[in-house]
Design the sequence.
């Protein structure tokens, strides 16, 4: 059974969560893999691959897939620290926090998932035409310390604006995505920095407009919005299963790139199953056009996100991330498919 988990946790602020904990049976002795992901289009490979059975086929009948659906990244890392999940689709900043807070022990990034697919949208009647107009406004992000939260804070700093808690006049309100939509409709929020499909839903369903498409802020419009992480202990004990998952992840990504209309339909049906409501055709096509499925983790953008998290105060020290990637299963899969391998360069 899929369980919905919604929590508001900033890992960097809780020293008591700085080590992986909890107890579990030896994962090598249990033919299962516990997977976390969001009902977001930026996690489309999880939506599509689970729905179509690609991952189940790759892992084989002897391996059980158990899934948990989350609202935002920090709660994914909490679950990984507690050893409740083994593999997850998540944004860069929660992964960075989890790696740093566990002294590099808890997790590894093993593949990319999505480039793009995030934006700052504002109410059309909020009087916001430029970044300078954000002063005195009330903006939301999905969760304190998540990838979009860090992106908003970095953007404000670049434009000489500060959050209220840092002596500025921009109020940042961490809020679950579904609630953001309702609060914008009732004019309790002026805008939000959110992933897809929520940016497009705010446009289509709440009369918002895009102030910043995050692709505009990155070289060639390319940055990691979601990637695949694995609990280090599980990876070391179950490399064959992780490799099988990545094989399927690449195959699903290739199918999605070749068959975008079908991929959208499958992902949307899965979103309906998980949330009770499908995306409208307008939201679906608009959101899909802003993102690119990929297996490339777009390494330089993760390091830049880490610097932004440090500047925002979520990381006490400049992070040392030299060991956060283990791309050997990915590169093995890419070699087998005669595709270019990925190198880690900071």
Sequence:
């Amino acid at each position: 059974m899929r369980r919905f988990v919604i929590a508001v946790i900033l890992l960097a602020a809780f020293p008591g969560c700085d080590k992986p904990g909890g107890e579990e049976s030896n994962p090598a002795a249990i033919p299962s893999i516990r997977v976390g992901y969001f009902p977001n289009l930026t996690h489309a490979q999880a939506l599509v691959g689970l729905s179509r059975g690609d991952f189940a086929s790759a892992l084989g009948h002897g391996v059980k897939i158990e899934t948990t659906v989350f609202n935002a990244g920090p709660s994914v890392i909490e679950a990984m620290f507690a050893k409740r999940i083994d593999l997850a689709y998540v944004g860069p900043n929660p992964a960075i926090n989890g790696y740093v807070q566990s002294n590099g022990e808890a997790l590894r990034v093993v593949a990319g998932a999505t480039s793009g697919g995030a934006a700052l949208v504002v109410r059309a009647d909020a009087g916001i035409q430029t970044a300078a107009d954000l002063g005195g406004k009330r903006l939301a992000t999905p969760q304190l310390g998540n990838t979009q939260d860090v992106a908003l804070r970095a953007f404000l700093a670049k434009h000489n604006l500060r959050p209220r808690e840092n002596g500025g006049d921009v109020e940042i309100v961490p809020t679950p995505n579904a609630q953001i939509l309702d609060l914008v409709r009732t004019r309790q929020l002026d805008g939000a920095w959110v992933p897809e499909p929520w940016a497009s839903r705010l446009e289509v369903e709440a009369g918002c407009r895009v102030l910043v498409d995050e692709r505009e802020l990155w070289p060639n419009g390319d940055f990691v919005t979601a990637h695949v992480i694995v609990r280090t202990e599980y990876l070391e004990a179950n490399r064959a299963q992780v490799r099988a998952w990545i094989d399927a992840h690449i195959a699903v990504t290739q199918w999605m790139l070749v068959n975008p209309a079908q991929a959208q339909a499958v992902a949307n049906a899965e979103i309906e199953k998980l949330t009770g409501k499908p995306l409208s055709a307008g939201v679906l096509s608009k959101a899909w056009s802003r993102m690119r499925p990929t297996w490339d983790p777009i390494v330089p953008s993760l390091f830049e996100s880490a610097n932004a998290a440090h500047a925002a105060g979520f990381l006490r020290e400049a992070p040392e991330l030299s060991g956060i990637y283990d791309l050997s299963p990915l590169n093995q899969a890419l070699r087998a498919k005669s595709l270019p391998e990925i190198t880690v360069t900071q």
